[in-house]
Amino acid sequence: MDSEIFDKAQAILTNRRMRAVSENEMRIREVNEKIPQIREINEVLYNTGKELISIISNGKGKDISDKIEQLRQYNLGAQMMSKKILAENGYPEDYLEMHYTCPKCSDTGYNGSKFCDCFKALCGKLAADELNNNSQLELSSFDTFSLSYYSGENYNAMKNILEFTKQYAATFSPDSKSILMFGQTGLGKTHLSLAIANKVLEKGYGVIYDSAINILRKIEKEHFSREHSSEMIDLVMDTDLLILDDMGTEYESQFYTATIYNIINTRLNRGKPSIISTNLDFAGIGRRYDKRVVSRLVSMYSCLEFKGKDVRLQKRNNNA
């Protein structure tokens, strides 16, 4: 994982924790001022907490277990009384509890010994945001995709693809189908995949968008590092939508080929959608990759063939 993205995600989680603590302290002060009974109960709970620490430090055997259980029951009773009084005064029963953004990890980013899903999603969003800034996402919307550069049968084919991708983005869910975009360079594959990314991010889903070579390099770097890290591959496997651009432009190596298959196969098995773009046709994919890759792409992806003349060249010629 990019250390800068990791650090940004950690900083965001730290701010979330601090905000949760600050808001909780404000709620406690508010209730203590308005409801003296609650303040008294909170003081009792605080003192029993100190007593519990003393028991654990000085006690032993069955005696300590009995005392801890007595305190636990006493605290439960006090907490129930506190909730009842809050409700009687028009407050939610959980008003004095800590309200973290992610209750699974209490905004620490870790669920047990593993990264929490919220941390993975946050890193994926930060990675996508960084890429989108570099790729001028705002210029790659459906509205800026022009069909005027296509004609005849190519126009009809591209009009269908545009409508398909618009509908895909509008109805996207974690159960959406995967897409393979293939065809010659300069026909709009990157533009439309970025347009989808834009809409999916607006819905609040996590998206990782990058070129195949960049993602593979990061995975390779972590895999062969001294720590043998797996953060990047974990993010790639877990993000709501993976968009792998320019597959086939990466260096040919056994590790890259195996990783491409692993990404495609694992995300399919987990029911997670991916969008892959490539300048290769099916024959080219078959020559470049394991036949299992072709089989999964053909049978389990919606395959969109981009047709026409290089739009970038057309724009260049028109501006000449």
From TrEMBL:
Transmembrane segments: none annotated. One of its GO terms (biological process) is DNA replication. One of its GO terms (molecular function) is ATP binding. It comes from the Bacteria. Residues 175-299 form the AAA+ ATPase domain. NCBIfam families: PRK06835.1. This is AAA+ ATPase domain-containing protein. It comes from Ruminococcus flavefaciens 007c.
